[in-house]
Amino acid sequence: MRGSLRLAAAAMLSMAGLAAAQEALVISEFMAANTSRTPLSAGELLDKDGESSDWIEIWNPSSVAVNLEGWFLTDNLNNLMKWEFPAAALAPGGFLVVFASGKNQRDPAAEFHTSFALAAGGESLALVAPDGTVAHAYVDYPPQFADVSYGMNSADAGLATAEVLVAQGAEATALVPTDGSLGSDWTLAGFNDAHWLHGTTGVGFDYPGNVGLDVAAMRGVNPTVYVRIPFRVEDEASVNRLTLHMKYEDGFVAYLNGFEVVRSNAPSQASLSWNAAATENRLDSDAVVFEDFDISAHANRLVPGDNVLAIQGLNIDLISSDLLILPELIAVHIHEVDLSTVLEGYLVQPTPGAPNEGALAQIGPTIRDVTENPPPPDPDEDLVITARVVQTLAPVVGVMLTWQVDLDVLARMETHDTVPMVDDGTGGDATAGDGVYTAIIPASAYEEGSLIRWRIDAVDSQGRTSRDPLFLRPDDSPEYYGTVAQDPTLSTSLPVLYWFSEQPARTRTRSGGRASVFFDGEFYDNVFVRERGAYTTNGSQKFVFNRGHKFRFSPEHPRVREFNLNSNGSDSSYLRQPLAFETMRKAGSPASLSFLMLSVCNGNVDRVGIFIEQVDEEFLERNSLDPAGALYKFVQRSSSAPVFNDISSGIEKKSRENEGRDDVAAIVAGLNASSEQRRRAFVFDRFNLPQMMCYLAARCLLQDTDDIRKNFYFYCDSDGTGEWSIFPWDKDWTFGVVGDGGVYTTHPFLGADSHPKAGGSQWSVYLSVMYHLPETQEMFLRRLRTVMDEQLQPPGTPADQLLFENRINEMVNQARGYLAGSASSLRNYFPPRRMQLYVDHSIHNNTNPPAGGVAGIPDPQPEDVSILFGDYDCHPVSGNQDEEYIELINPNAYAVDISGWKLTGGIEHEFAPGTVIISGGSLYVSPDVRAFRQRETYPTGGQGLFVQGNYRGHLSSRGETIDLQDRSERLVATLMYPGVD
């Protein structure tokens, strides 16, 4: 769009433009659908909280600094002063990124955050000058796409021009000094270097392809080499930014016309001599990648005409085997420009905080409000498609609908057409001349269950074109809108996943293929589908959706970027996987959502698949966990050593990939500590014990025989409590599918070194510690009893009240007619499992111990069980209130499960599922467990204390009352403490 405007009234705004102000600022770029995630790629951006907030880029195209005080941003043209900038200067040619997050932060020393967020569906965005005029606005901007920015095409406008002052392969001279007689004269532009070595950059040796001036003779003589690179500058006054790109090993000091501008891996100025060496060794792999150094502060050292870039190259020592000094010097010139010539549109490569780059993705007519996810048509019902199309730069002269039916290249691929759309009140168009164009896809083109796809193309009088969907990324964006015609012949209570692929066989390989997906009334195009699974695949697939188009599998849960559609694996009933994950969740452990799904591929029933939620950042967020924490997946080990014996194999890092594996190595060290005391201290400080008790209890109910060395995730709340949790995965070897379980398959301690799987080496250091430490064993057995009573139920429970059996019946009825196997083996698992846990492993079994001995599962805890308040600290001596705590004491001779109990009064806290206080033991409750474990005095970390947080509020030093209530709201205990003088 073009134009220059001031705001007289909101109705006057119809195009983006710039007020003719002396100190003019513009919104050069913005992103209204940011989905960035770590590790960040080029153009991606997160705010200081690690959140993918939308953002707005402000640019100062003038040659003078602008004070932002009194400027405003708004997304409402009826409220121009919605968010005000604080006092801050924006340098000439400078950029400022403001996050549009709704967080409303104006600290000049920190990030700026507006009080509003941007609407991806389209709205207005304006920058308002101190005099109340609109300096720049995007009025009614079009719908935005995930990770695609919108803004001004700086390349066309010449907003910023980059000039390469020193390029790779530039002429250069070099000298290996033999004494210090040259002083610093060699860095000056007028120095005579005629007798130096001559060649081209880079300077060095033993870097094939990067060296044009070989100085291998310096080896064994001097770790320093002097390098001079002459260059010319014609317009030094317009240089706004100056960047030195360096490939180097091992260090350097750079000078511009005799003035030092930057150094890296170099000694201090006082220690920098003619034979100085680098302070650190630099890896070869790092040396051949350009590192950027912003030397804009030294741009004033440039002079018109001849200049010199002088570099003292430094090797780590005299005998180093290689050296590299390869610079590039880039200047960015900023000129006053006529912003009325600037085009606006989508920028496929966002550049927050930097000049916009690349061509605009679309400058033809603006297309919006395209028919999307209409009700699936009856096979005899025409499908009416509409779109609002308006001019951008020139009048609209044509709008076309391209539609296609089905994708199977062996079937009806030829059924497609392109037809004109009209806005003349005919052919289904409701109102002539209203900017809404209409076309019809006839019912005769499709049948029951057919895939119907469409896109809109428009052209203006100057031949400029646009399309919707934009289809910016062939591997990560939709190409068409679509739906699926109703199929009354398909009758099922299962959720139905329709998917269509031109080459369905490719979607069942590791390389994968693309597909269109329709589920629960929503269409997703160009989805990536591939085979998944490790040891066995057997038809399991992974569906990965495009950014900004996540999959809605349930209205009750957030959308997901990917999911797994598993085969039944070793489970003939198809029910074990979803039932196992459900059991885990009911026990209090985070676990994937899972359910049966009928797969219909290219119009034919493909199979009953098992939807399984991916364990990823979205899973963590759904379970109220920090998605920035470390996440590891444990897979098949190449070594026969037990898991957590080492980190040599079988561990995949799924997040924080820019970090090493020191955190998981610390788990190995802690679990293998030389004494029980040290193992205890580690477990209580670093493990989320309530969550782990829920996991262990549920795995016992499941009788999981395939999660000992693999098929689980470990997650650390790295930036919070620092505690580790465990999540389940791959659950077909459960509920009686024993595999290679061996003699201890039915034992609650299966997987410990004392109770290994068949083969002897199939055990886990983690499980051994958890089952053998007296405290964690007692916690586990108590939590196991709770979960048994809540889900498994004791022998003799009336059949109509049996939760597992009734749930199986529900699942079988839902999938009736489509399950190939029988659920009888699954149903038959539960009666003997009840006997094993309630009788064989009961604490009262003193006569007939099972293989591996009696685990000692306790009786149910009394309903009126007592827990007492113990010590407290409302006034920590450190002055850090987060170090306060309250102690709860279990006076009983048995462990007590206080899951769901609450503290109320001056503070509020609900105890996590799996919270068990051992007999005679204590639990310390804290507002910040990390701060508690850093206390300088007892109680603190490293002492094997059970701690839970983080409660809301703080204890008052003036005294107050705290109540402890159980799950039935029975008052268990009260703490009344006096104030502190």
Structure explained in plain terms:
- This protein is of the alpha+beta class and 981 residues long.
- The chain has 6 domains: 10-159 and 338-347, Immunoglobulin-like (Sandwich), CATH 2.60.40.1260; 162-334, Jelly Rolls (Sandwich), CATH 2.60.120.260; 366-470, Immunoglobulins (Immunoglobulin-like); 496-567 and 591-613, no CATH class; 626-792, no CATH class; 868-978, Sandwich (Immunoglobulin-like), CATH 2.60.40.
- The chain is 12% helix and 29% strand.
- It has 12 helices and 54 strands.
- The strands form 12 sheets. The protein has a 7-stranded mixed barrel with strand order 34-35-36-37-38-40-39.
- Strand 48 (902-905) and strand 49 form a beta hairpin.
- Helix 3 (576-587) runs antiparallel to helix 7, helix 7 (689-702) crosses helix 9 (774-792) and helix 8 (765-772) packs across helix 9 (774-792).
- It is globular.
- The N and C termini lie far apart (69 Å).
- The model is unreliable at 1-22 and 408-414 (pLDDT under 50).
What are the defining features of this structure?
981 residues; alpha+beta; Immunoglobulin-like; Jelly Rolls; 12% helix; 29% strand; disordered N terminus
Brief characterization of the structure:
The chain is an alpha+beta fold and about 1000 residues long. The protein is about 10% helix and about 30% strand.
Strand arrangement, largest sheet? Answer: 34-35-36-37-38-40-39
Shape: globular
Helix content range of the residues, please? 10-25%
Characterize the biggest β-sheet.
Answer: 7 strands, mixed, barrel
